[in-house]
Amino acid sequence: MPLYKRILSYLAPHSRLIFVAIVATAIFAVLDATVYVLLIPFMETLFVRGLTASTPVDSGMARLLDATVYRWVDVGGNPLSAIGSIIVLILLVFAAKNLFHFLRVYLLARAEQGFNRDVRNSVYSRLVDLDLGFFGRVRTGQIVSRLTTEVEQVRTLVISEFSSVVSAMLEFSAALVAMLLISWKLTTAAFLVIPAAMVFWGPLVKVLRRRDRRVQHLGGEVNAHILETLSGIRLVKSASAESRERERFEKLTGDYFYQFMRAEFTRALAAPVTEMLAATGTVVLLWYGARLVIEGDVTGAQFVGFLGLSMKLYSPVKRIAKFPATAQPGLVAAERIFEFLDAPVEIRDSPEAASLKSIEREISFENISFSYRDGDPAIDRVSFCVPKASMLALVGPSGSGKSTIVDLLGRFFEVADGRITIDGIDIRSIRLADLRALIGIVSQETVLFHDTVFANIAYGSTDTEQRSIEAAARAAHAHEFICGLPNGYKTFVGERGFQLSGGQRQRIAIARALLRDPPILILDEATSALDTGSERVIQGAIKKLVDGRTVFVIAHRLSTVQSADQILVMDKGRIVGRGTHASLVAESGLYRQLYELQFQDTGISGNLWVSWRSNSSSNIWGSVWYV
Ligand code: ADP
After folding, report:
1. Cα of 406 from ligand 1 centre, angstroms
2. From CA 541, how far away is CA 553, in angstroms rounded?
3. How far is the CA of 64 from the centre of ligand 1 (A)?
4. 232 vs 366, which has greater pLDDT?
5. Alpha-carbon span 510 to 514, nearest angstrom
6. Using 50, 70 and 90 to split pLDDT, how confident is the model at 617?
């Protein structure tokens, strides 16, 4: 669908409002022109008594005035009362004109905000539907920019700019009709300058469009940079990268400034050039009009009225001529928003997707391959089977594909080759909502929304009874500290749970998982060392959580690995070792090497991979084995 059509389709629900607004604008335009037309009887009344220089002229306007105003106002009679009547008429027209102006502005504002709401809702709705892969490709700042600034720009285009152009056209038409009624010759003269404006505008608009696109892209980059800095502020500080980030940011704002000024330069050129064209037109008109009056083609009063109307005309012409330029940011923004709305959602329910509410036997990965982009596979022909209620530990260096494995199980990404089955059913033929309801995730990156503790625990569950929430919190060893918060379960936690300690956040996440009670659990163990106290509490909570579930754990601790029923050692997307702790130690592979290194180390529950790394700087894995 062409861009304009698509933008207008969003206006359809508000078409009634807009229609009334346009009618109001049309009436406003006619009344606006009428004010100038009323100058004619006003002047003629003066001229009849004073400088009767004009001979009666038979123009369309003269006939129109005869049929209307002069029926009511006796120009030949008492001049003061005639002038009084005309002034009352002018006042009435002004009042009516402003009433319609008010109607127009108010109705358009309603349509405008309705449009804003609808576009934002559809962009947001798309946003939550999009595949996880999309968020890896597009920067968060760009997305935020689309939802805020750019929706705003499209709104400005569609309503403010567009309605301004429609109203300009109506004002233009009303003034034009009045002018033609006075004299077609004068009208032609007034229009001589318009084609000149057209020649000037074409190329300028193209340049502007290009420059505006650049400005908008940079605006998104600035946003993205701020967001990334905010989410990684700890890292920035701990790496003492403040000045580097400052420099990068200043480079971006500098670029933005430069590009913005370039676009603005072109835009600013538009006004003075149009103004000059208008001034030239007026001068030509004064000369030619004076000639026509002297030759007796129009009356002096009609010429004054005409001048008023033609001055009036330039403003709408200016607005119409400027429209292609002022519309550019909105059009570019619309393009970007539609690009976003059109991004395909690939992971969705197939038409024959079936329901699955529980797991009876096992989860099986059958010869799975997957890559994020063309090229290196992140997972390379991996097969394994996890029986119900058993625990699988995934171990291996960072980037070896552990998280990808569990993301594939939740269909956050789609396998490229092979299949994953639950009880023999391909997960692609299970309803997505059912599949995800089967899986609970507790990860080291605990997400808490800006809401109450209660709502954070209840997130994603159908059971929102106070009793159940409390029971889950108790089982997660979280009840006690929650009761100690200023408003207990009703305490708001920050956007990313900043007011709570890492351990407390994790316990809330565990309570959330316990409440949902999913048969499959994905556990991404924390790598960051918690203090021993909360470590023990969390281990206790996790024990309760894993009990009786089918568990995939991305394991960093020896204690977890030892208690796993099955361990997969991963490297570069492949399985390089598998078995139980005992069998892997018995083999002379990498796992055993790790185990021995671990024993030289002090703590038995320390971080497996960190200790491996610190002891293996001489081997080729060296720094790679860092989680
Ligand atoms: P692990 O969990 O073992 O650290 P991952 O599964 O996160 O490993 O990553 C496996 C490989 O896939 C790595 O090479 C990583 O760089 C790449 N990768 C992970 N996530 C993405 C993503 N969203 N986009 C592109 N590449 C990714």
Report:
1. 12
2. 15
3. 79
4. 366
5. 6
6. very low
With cut-offs at 50, 70 and 90, classify the pLDDT of residue 50.
Answer: very low
Please return the burial class of 238, using the count of CB atoms within 10 Å of its CB with bins 0-12, 13-18 and 19+: exposed
Query: Which tens digits make up the pLDDT trace of 251-293?
Result: 999 999 999 999 999 888 877 776 777 677 778 788 888 888 8
Listed in sequence order, the residues at least 6 apart from 426 whose beta carbon sits closer than 8 Å to its beta carbon are 419, 420
Placement of tokens 């860092």 in the chain: 626
Q: What is the C-alpha separation between 376 and 416, in angstroms, rounded?
A: 13
Give the DSSP letter of residue 461.
Answer: -
Ligand 1 near 401 CB (within 6 A): yes
Q: Which of 555, 549, 492, 488 is nearest to 518 (CA)?
A: 549
Is 160 close to ligand 1, i.e. is its CB under 6 Å away? no
- Average pLDDT over the chain, rounded to an integer: 82
pLDDT at position 295 is 85
pLDDT for res 74: 77
C-beta 402 within 6 A of ligand 1: yes
Question: How do beta strands 439-442 and 520-524 pair?
Answer: parallel
Task: Evaluate if residue 75 carries a pLDDT over 80.
Answer: no
Is-contact 6 36, C-beta < 8 A?
no
In a 10 Å sphere around its CB, with 0-12 CB exposed, 13-18 middle and 19+ buried, how is residue 368 labelled? buried
Is there an atom of ligand 1 within 6 Å of 395 CB? no
477 Cβ below 6 A of ligand 1: no
pLDDT at 620: 33
Q: Tell me, in angstroms, the distance from the centre of ligand 1 to residue 399's CA.
A: 5
The verdict on the CB of residue 399 being under 6 Å from ligand 1 is: yes
Q: Which atom of ligand 1 is nearest to the CA of 373?
A: 25
Tell me if 129 sits within 8 A of 135, measured CB to CB. Answer: no
Tell me the pLDDT tens digit for each residue of 413-440. 989 899 999 999 999 999 988 998 899 8
Q: Is the pTM of this model over 0.85?
A: no
CB within 8 Å of 249: residues ≥ 6 apart: 222, 225, 226, 229
Amino acid making up residue 430: I
What was the pLDDT predicted at 251? 95
Sheet holding 362-370, edge to edge: 379-387, 362-370, 417-422, 425-426
* 358 backbone dihedrals φ, ψ, rounded to 5°: -150, 170
Task: Classify 522 as helix, strand or coil.
Answer: strand
pLDDT of residue 100: 93
Count Cα neighbours of 450 within 13 Å in the Cβ-side half-sphere: 2
For the segment 99-109, what is each residue's pLDDT rounded down to a tens digit? 999 998 899 88
What is residue 387's three-state secondary structure?
strand
**For 339-360, how does the pLDDT look when each residue is reduced to its tens digit (9 = 90+)?**
888 888 888 888 888 888 889 9
Identify the sign of the CA torsion 153, 154, 159, 164. positive
Cα–Cα distance, 318 to 236 (Å, whole number): 50
CA distances from 191 to 187, 196, 199, 491, 606 (A): 6, 10, 14, 69, 85
Count other Cβ atoms within 10 Å, centred on residue 312. 20
Ligand 1 atom nearest to CA at 132: 23
